[in-house]
Description:
With 115 residues, chain A is of the alpha/beta class.
Amino acid sequence: MISEFNVKAEQKDNCVILNTYGYINNEGGQKIVDEFSQYHGKGLNNFVLNLEGTKIVNSIGISFLIEMIEKLNDSNGKMVFTNLDPTIEKTFSIMGLFQFAEKANSVEEAVNAFK
Amino acid sequence: MTSKFQQNIISKLSLQVASFQEGFKILANASSLRELGRNFNHILRGSILVVDLNLFYKKNKESPWEEIYVYNKNSKKFLDDLELGTNFLLVSAKRKSYKLRILLPLNDDSYFGLFLGPKLDRKPYSELDKIILQIFMQLLDNAYQAFNSKRKEKELIFSLNHRVVQLNSLIDTGIEISKLSNKKMLMELALERAASLTNASTGLLRIFNNTKMLSQIEFPAGSNSREILNSNYKIERQVEYRGLKYFITLANKESRMGYVPFDETDEILLEAFARQVLNAMENEFLHKEAIEKESIKKELSLAGEIQKKLLPNKMPEIEGYDLAGINIPSKEVGGDYFQVLKLSDGRFALIIADVAGKGVPAALLVSTLDACLVAYLEMQIPLSEMAKKINSLIYKASPPDKFITFFIAVLTPATGDLDIINAGHNPVLLLRKNNKLEKIEAGGIAFGMFDMGLPFEGEKLKINRGDRLFLYTDGIPEAMNKREEEYSDERMEKFFKSKKPKKAKTFIGNIVNDIKKFTGNTPQSDDITALYLIRN
């Protein structure tokens, strides 16, 4: 069986946690943005992207993440990344994602960043 | 001459210059089209008293209109009234829903479409309003160009950052895979990194022995290998290592618009990853080999130490006799053995043996022989029976190509009686006081060759005062010089007959020196072992 990308969203107070599983590429990135848009469209602005289940990201996947960050910046919202694999953290750092989004060590710490 | 109307407009526009400049600054800072639309709405609202503003964007003639900023939820219907053209269009409409429609063609073949509802003061749009609108549309055009330039700049930065990521990951992956000892894991890591850094949707690594495929790894796990190999967008590299061929295939390079062909950088990256896999396998092999060599060296050294302990480090004192012995192994662990054991009845057993071959297998047999001898000699059974038992044990304990030539002489010191068995060993030399040389050959086959109950015939001799007994292994007569000539039985026997020092130790030292003199710098090819007994 091919390991398909999956994203599961859960809402905690005013914060949306997006949990990803698998390779964030074109397909994975689009799925995340689709899930994100559902909540963002309802006016939710605080997002946590929990990448515990993701070990690989490509640049197309990153472009989707940047798109979400830009949308949140437009709406005065915020994105916090958590449970980053060291390779992904390094990649995000080089790509400049942490200039416009934050990172946390755990989902709990990420959720607290909005309080 | 300017008319009063024109002068009025010029003076009113002059008053707005600052707001135009400020407006452009705000518009040009937009980070997205939606932000651009939102800001445009704010600026326009303050300048011409309108809130019902609906802005749309069309990427090209074929693409659909996108909502950028919409006040009237039904405004999308108005787009039916907007005819695409190459010129700026500002049309008044006497409709309830909107009062002005504007088409702004942009220099990248895209369009802005704007529909304005009634003004807040319900007054019709004046000529001045329309002129101000035209100016703001021009500002929107300029801001859009600035926005596009910024977007291209962002794309360029993104692309440059991605190059840095690729380079960095290539280095990191090289380090990471060099730490992995599991070949499958290092290949999985290299494949997933190569795929993600080239934006490949899938990847495949296949290992072949000639034309037979041994195994394959897919990325992501479980991907359809046939689809990967049949893809229109793929690149492939092949490396060979120790007779196996490794094919790495990446397929379906992704973009936001769908699959695209791989570029030159992707080819270079894949080549680099393939080399990394090759280097990692080579390093892993050499590392394992070095560890094995080191381990073997340690084991050999240990086996050598154990074997040394089997040999006597000091000769027993036998009253009325002088005895000396030597063992010089050619390798760390040899196959020669000698021993002098004092038996409980006061007799002494002089033993010399040679295992076919050298190294650890030979040392193990030597160890078995030593254990057998110690046990059986104490049982005081006849030598021929003991030889039979030892032969049987060695036969069972050794592989078909291993056997032991063996000589034992049990000496009764008081009488000089020698009870002898020679099991396939070189003839032992006995030099009588009168210089007559006797060769003791009696016995049977070497231990471990057959276990058919063949008898070992013993021999009884007497060593008299002034007689000398010389036990040796074939390492002495077969010692070679650089011309591949052997020291030979003749030279050894001649030396034995001619050199008769008072001390056994002196004879052993002299014959070793004579062998070294003969062989020169030629490396010792076999173990040298000897026992020398003089009856005083």
